[in-house]
């Protein structure tokens, strides 16, 4: 077998945090290799893999195990204890079917309507403000969409504002990979607050004191029985119900990237405003490819195998390069150019456009909410392109690729917002 190119040094964790999305691409370029090894998380040996063939390998359940590979602190803040992300095998497949059962055509159409309506209703609020921070504003709008989609009752406006902030604290926590205690503590508190609230709604539903609609998250997670005929523990049900809400709110990042793209790349806004959805779809796919969100995903070798002439030994940590794969010149022509038309002839491969993971929805850990994300983004981008007019003041538009998680530095500020509806 060939020798795997190796990053020198005892532990790269701090360099990963320091270089962010560029850490892996810098090294695949330097070694001119889609496979390299390094030490991380206290000196553990890890093999990094990048590209489409790598993704095919990573999502082969016979070769790669995902369970037990996420850092403990990230589980505790981002996903929650016992979350679907941490399960494997039959148990994972069983519970994944619960998540996927929410993704009926009707339910997704309902989500589309909710998104459109909540933004439409928000116009008055946007008009009333001198300046709007798109990232912050979307947080609250998306929280309402997420709660209503799950049919979770809204709390007081003040508590909804708090929950919105809480969602961001949880997502922010992956930026330090759990190494910074203050961020960890903040995210833990945020999680406890929202888990408590959701668990209460689940208990009320089970007692017959609250009647969410069939097909909604609250209904389905409250009443679902697993393969052993058992209801989920109410805390666990709250944790996994939140795994449909927090990531939905995290779409605020893609929204601010989208509004940035419509500003930075001339012509995009006009094309997104077109009547039929086909350009909005391509635009959204390009947003998900181009802008930095998920940097990489961890797994480990389940049984010995050889890949690309390299030996992978059982138990070795494997890190799948997400951001680098989305920016690979061999997969995407002029990868550093923002070019939605590239999706005109895309073959829909489950292994190249992987901002939300790859492989199969039902048997792999691929994001359960990918279709939801695309729908919410399409409707939101059309709203900004069509339903309102606004000005974009000078601000710091930087999207720093050395900082996890990715964000527009300013949050994306717009001002002088007008209703674009001709009422004469
Ligand atoms: C899993 C990203 C939105 C629910 C994942 C994974 C990624 C991801 C990278 C893990 C893939 C893997 O481990 O192989 C994102 C991004 C989103 C987003 C970037 C947009 C902001 C959503 C939404 C939902 C959702 C809207 C709502 C249902 C989930 C669930 C899983 C998951 C339940 C766990 C799936 C499993 O373990 O089988 N997501 N996601 N995500 N996502 Fe998303």
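-> sequence recovered:
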């Amino acid at each position: 077998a060939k020798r795997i190119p190796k990053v020198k040094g005892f532990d790269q964790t701090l360099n990963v945090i320091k270089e962010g999305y560029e850490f892996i691409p810098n090294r695949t370029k330097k070694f001119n290799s889609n496979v390299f090894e390094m030490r991380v998380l206290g000196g553990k040996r890890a093999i990094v893999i990048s590209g489409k063939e790598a993704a095919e390998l990573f999502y082969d359940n016979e070769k790669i195990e995902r369970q037990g590979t996420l850092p403990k602190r990230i589980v505790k803040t981002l996903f929650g204890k016992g979350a679907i992300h941490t399960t494997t095998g039959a148990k994972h497949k069983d519970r994944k079917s619960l998540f996927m059962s929410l993704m009926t055509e009707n339910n997704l159409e309902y989500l589309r309507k909710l998104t459109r309506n909540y933004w439409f209703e928000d116009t008055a609020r946007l008009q009333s403000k001198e300046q709007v921070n798109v990232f912050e504003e979307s947080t609250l709008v998306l929280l309402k969409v997420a709660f209503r989609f799950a049919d979770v009752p809204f709390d007081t406006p003040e508590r909804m504002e708090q929950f919105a902030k809480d969602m961001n604290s949880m997502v922010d926590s992956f930026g330090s990979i759990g190494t910074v205690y203050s961020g960890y503590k903040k995210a833990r508190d945020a999680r406890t607050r929202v888990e408590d609230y959701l668990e209460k709604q689940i208990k009320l539903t089970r007692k017959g004191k609250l009647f969410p609609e069939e097909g909604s998250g609250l209904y389905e997670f409250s009443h679902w029985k697993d393969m052993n005929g058992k209801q989920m523990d109410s805390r666990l049900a709250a944790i996994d119900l939140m795994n449909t809400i927090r990531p939905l709110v995290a779409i605020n990042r893609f929204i601010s990237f989208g509004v940035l793209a419509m500003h930075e790349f001339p012509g995009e806004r006009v094309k997104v405003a077109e009547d039929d959805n086909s350009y909005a779809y391509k635009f959204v796919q390009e947003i998900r490819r181009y802008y930095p969100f998920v940097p990489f995903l961890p797994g480990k070798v389940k049984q010995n195998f050889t890949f690309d002439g390299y030996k992978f030994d059982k138990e070795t940590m494997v890190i799948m390069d997400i951001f680098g794969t989305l920016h690979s010149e061999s997969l995407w022509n002029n990868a550093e150019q923002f070019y939605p038309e590239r999706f005109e002839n895309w073959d829909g491969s489950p292994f190249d456009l992987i901002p939300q993971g790859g492989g199969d929805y039902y048997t792999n850990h691929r994001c359960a909410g990918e279709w939801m994300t695309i729908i919410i983004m399409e409707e939101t981008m059309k709203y900004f392109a069509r339903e309102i007019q606004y000005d974009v003041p000078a601000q710091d538009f930087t999207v720093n690729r050395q900082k996890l998680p990715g964000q527009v530095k300013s949050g994306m500020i717009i001002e002088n917002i007008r209703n674009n509806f001709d009422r004469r």
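Strands lie at 35-40, 44-50, 64-65, 131-133, 296-301, 305-307, 310-312, 317-321, 388-391, 413-419.
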